[in-house]
Amino acid sequence: MRAVIALSPRLVCSRCGEERLISEYAYRCSRCDYPLEVHYDHDEVYEAFNIEDLADRGFDMWRYRELLPVRDPSSVVSLQEGGTPLVRAGRLGGELGLEELCLKDETRNPTWSFKDRGSSVGVSMAVEVGAGAVGCVSSGNMAASMAAYAARAGLRCVIVVPRKTPMGKIVQMLVCGASLASVEAPYHVITRAFIENSVSAGVYSVHNDSPMRVEGQKTVSFEVAEQLGWESPDWVIVPTSSAGNFSAVWKGFTELEARGLTAGRPRMGLAQAAGNAPIVRSFRKGLDHVEPNPNPKTIASGISNPDPPSGLRALGILRESRGCGEMASDEEILEAQGQLARAEGLFVEPAAAVPLACLKRMLADGVVAGDERVVLLLTGSGLKDIDAALTSVGRPVELSSLGEMAGFMGAR
Ligand SMILES: Cc1ncc(COP(=O)(O)O)c(C=O)c1O
Ligand SMILES: [Zn+2]
After folding, report:
1. Which pTM value belongs to this model?
2. Complete domains list, the chain, with CATH
């Protein structure tokens, strides 16, 4: 790697312009509470980043290192995250009447979710600023990812999860040696308390919409564009909870366009579960803020934040991108999970099936046309939450003897 891999990045509030140092444990604007974002000196980055250089680099997210905020290559904590396939889904597309459907398979990251991109940048930055510990509050995937990257960095990892977090994710945290507690309280309330305590506890927080997480996760857009020959798709549909990732995906496409690497940006589909769709409902009502959901209830446990901290930012992106907020019932989500597996062989957790369930509605409503190029983000693996899938699949046929095998094998 080169000696300097990012230039003059700083934390900025996109609403009021407040600036903070990149090294601060700062996540939101002190004036307007808007999430801070990393801004770069456009000309310096433009000079440093050259797509011709990519030919000599491995296909993981650090191939875009000049566009990330970590300065010292020795700070980088990586498990070769990113570089996930963009699967052309011909059979599934055919079932839906879509000419070009692509699945960005984020389940193939090191801890089997998209969170690894953000954890890699976040934990690298924690190393760079000399933090002794990292951590987050999480519905599962993010904490499982943080535990792995903290272990890789040799840092302590502090995690708090809501009581009902699936065991497939809990075990990932424990096996990596994280300090883990669960508590019976709403996700967003736990997160707020965690962030408030993080500076005094010396824990560098890399939560769902922290600036460093957004930086790592924006690289999915760089990859999608590169995999499409430096073109933006017509639509990207993102399963959304805190809206940290939705913001990250948009930031990625925005940076590409600003640097002249792509000619346009996609329209953004914000996909939520009907049992917890505060952003979609607020967008449809034309509100200028997101009304929290008093009673979240969905099988898609990964997207169950009822008071999304980046909800306001997501409303702005929906408007700017001429996007669409859509939601799907638990039944539709499980149906989509099965359809994805049967048509393309990809087994994702319920949250990651929500974009497909929402796409079906968007096609039925004529929001998406059959000749548009659509990318769905498959954010997490189905093996992390098998209880959810078991509610909708059958059970194995029990043969009472080997003599029944020939009949079973020939049956259609
Ligand atoms: C599988 C999966 N998909 C989507 C999301 C939503 O991401 P965000 O909270 O950034 O909106 C999460 C969040 O944890 C998740 O675990
Ligand atoms: Zn501000």
Report:
1. 0.95
2. 86-112+213-390 (3.40.50.1100)
